[in-house]
Amino acid sequence: MKSLFVGNLSFKTTEGELMALFNQFGQVTRANVVMNRETGRARGFAFVEMPNDDEAAKAIAGLDGKSLGGRNLKVNEARPKTATHTPRVGGGGGDRDRFSNEDYRDAARQPREPRW
Q1: How many domains does the chain divide into?
Q2: Residue 67, SS3?
Q3: Beta strands in the chain, from DSSP E residues, in sequence order
Q4: Which of 5, 41, 50, 87 is a plausible cystine mate for 56, CB 3.0–4.6 Å?
């Protein structure tokens, strides 16, 4: 099973169009156009899964640089997702290890000098 990255897509490209385009080279298991969560609009790239590695290689060779929707596609083998820490927006806890007063609360305090 090969997962292919398809970049530089037109924002109007649908999953059905991708399936039809990649079916020319072999069986397609899934096509997923990545959408922006906030706007619901396509982000300009997609992932296509093909069960046969030879067919996937032919699709990469045949479609990389091909024009679709007025844009030249960038097709290559998808890289595995890396684990990166991205800070969450909005607080809500969970970042105790980064922004915490616990270290100061547990530490022994030095007596203060009088201010007079």
Answers
A1: 1
A2: strand
A3: 2-7, 30-35, 42-50, 67-68, 71-72, 74-77
A4: 50
Domain that holds residue 17: 2-77
In a domain, 9, yes or no: yes
State how far the Cα of 76 lies from the Cα of 7, in Å rounded to an integer: 9
Phi then psi dihedrals of residue 55, to 5 deg: -65, -40
Place of tokens 């046969």: 52
- Asked if residue 98 belongs to a domain, the reply is no
Q: Is the pTM of this model over 0.85?
A: no
pLDDT in tens, 52-101: 999 999 999 999 999 998 999 999 999 987 766 666 665 555 555 555 55
